[in-house]
Amino acid sequence: MGKVNTNGQKDNSQVNTHFKGSITFEACDFRSDAMFDNMTVDGMANFTGAIFREKALFNNVTFKGRQTYFTAFTSEKLFSMQESRIEGAIDFFKGKVTGKLSFQSTDFWGEARFSDLDCNGKSEFSLTNFRSDALFTYVNFGNDFRMSNTTIAGRLDMISVDFQSNALLTNAVFNGKVNFTKTKAKANFDLSGSLFVLGKPVMDEFEVLLPGMLITNGTQCTVNNKFEEIIDKQ
Q1: Is residue 136 left, alpha or beta, with left meaning phi > 0 and alpha meaning psi from -120 to 50?
Q2: Helix %, strand %, coil % of the chain (to 5)
Q3: Does 100 lie in the same domain as 30?
Q4: Checking CA distances to 68, which of 2, 38, 81, 225 falls within 20 to 30 Å?
Q5: Are residues 149 and 181 in the same domain?
């Protein structure tokens, strides 16, 4: 498939695309830029198995359907879904990203599933709002991971995650349970300034490999309904 663009102009005014029903691009091979910026989809959106060989741009999109699927998708250059609103659940299970991945300032209303994702480029989740669960089980992040100034209302699962580079979860608010079981960080794992409302995260068999450090400057959690600073044991 060639270049795709859901934006345009008419009489010097911006024209955006609004799909009243569902859309599907299942197993589509996008060989040029796929620009879906500013579109609205009222029904389900299905990009399962899609291959994005150039830029995949979903900035400022609104998905209103109960389910949005990017299951087993591939992105080779840049996948960007910034400042978007996802009103239902969204699934990136078994996705493969060789370039940069960005969800900065996106608002996830339903469950966001990134399990078994393999991302070799930088990953950006800063300023993101998760109103439900954020699931990152068995993910590999090959470059810097950022989740700064993010709010998660539901559960955060980062079980058996491999961080090959720095992981910055700074100044974030975790309102639900947090689980870092069997996660390994090969560089700094920074929780500075973050708040764990339901107490300390589960960190069974969690490991930061030298020369990386676990950084908890100003990190707090609730213990017996009081906020206490997490002590850095590294």
Answers
A1: alpha
A2: 0, 40, 60
A3: yes
A4: 2
A5: yes
The residue segments making up the domain with residue 145 are 127-234
Domain boundary among 121, 155, 183: 121
Q: Which of 109, 178, 101 has its CA nearest to residue 141?
A: 101
pTM: 0.92
3 state DSSP class of 179: strand
